[in-house]
Amino acid sequence: MPRTEANSLAAHTQFIAKREQGRIDVYVEGDSIARRWGTSDEAYRDNLANWNKNFYGWNVADFGWGADMLQNILWRLDHGELDGVNPKVIVFLGGTNNVGAVPGTDAKAAEIARGIRAVLTRFQQKAPEATVILTGIFPRNNNPALGAFIRKINAIVATYADGRKVRYLDVNDQLADAGGHLVDGMMNADGLHPTVKGYQVWADGLRPILTELLGPPAKEDHAPPPSADPGAKPAAPPGG
Q1: Per the count of CB atoms within 10 A, which of 13, 194, 200, 226 is most buried?
Q2: Predicted confidence (pLDDT) per residue in 216-226, tens digit
Q3: pLDDT tens for residues 141-169?
């Protein structure tokens, strides 16, 4: 399903160009949780500093887009955003926008898991040499009852991993307690998007896998420059 609003279409065009703007060994895909980490938007400059601290030298590029559901990510993959990239590793976190604000039925959990499986299949079709790191959907506190529902989806998704070409990464036990309540400081006030502290937890889970697959980071980085939201207002000049 395409996102038809002008800003999302502009972002899609931006991502098509980004494929050829540098070397991409690690391709990060997802929704706003992924996007806000590696963007040059002024509002998330602390997140970008954390991204650079953790990934510089591995040629990591962020292709996440805010508010995307799994069907929107599938559309972007089917319309060229991964074509010709041939990354060594793909990191994926998506599905929270399909979860919604209230828990669903077992059938809905299975449907969301099938959507994640479909995204995984696209990755394997378009980048067959890549190892995919599937990240479990993060906990969220906008409705505490969602915890069990998210765990149900993640339990299905975990079965997609084979330990070789598909790795499963779940850092939720560091983001929330056993009852599903977020640890203080891990998420912003919306209870959904990570703070720098939360992103560091994700990075701490990713870095050992990236080191295993790619070796230690190089002294130079050749990834495309981080992209910004096409509709974001530019930062005010000093004194402005």
Answers
A1: 194
A2: 999 999 999 99
A3: 867 789 999 999 999 999 999 999 999 99
- What are the domain boundaries of the chain? 6-16+23-214
CA atoms within 13 A on the CB side of 220: 3
Structure tokens at 4: 């038809």
Pull the structure tokens for residue 41: 């938007």
Most distant CA pair in the chain, distance: 55
Judge whether 182 and 173 are in contact, CB under 8 Å: no
SS (H, E, C) the chain: CCCCCHHHHHHHHHHHHHCCCCCCCEEEEECHHHHCCCCCCHHHHHHHHHHHHHHCCCCEEECCCCCCCHHHHHHHHHCCCCCCCCCCEEEEECCHHHHCCCCCCHHHHHHHHHHHHHHHHHHHHHCCCCEEEEECCCCCCCCCCHHHHHHHHHHHHHCCCCCCCEEEECCHHHHECCCCCECCCCECCCCCCECHHHHHHHHHHHHHHHHHHHCCCCCCCCCCCCCCCCCCCCCCCCCC
Q: Residue 168's beta-bridge partner residues? A: 134
The CA distance from 69 to 73, in Å, is 6
Residues 178-227 pLDDT 10s? 878 899 999 999 999 999 999 999 999 999 999 999 999 999 999 999 99
The pTM of this model reads 0.96
Cα–Cα distance measured from residue 10 to residue 127, given in angstroms and rounded to the nearest whole number: 24
Q: What is the CATH number of domain 6-16+23-214?
A: 3.40.50.1110
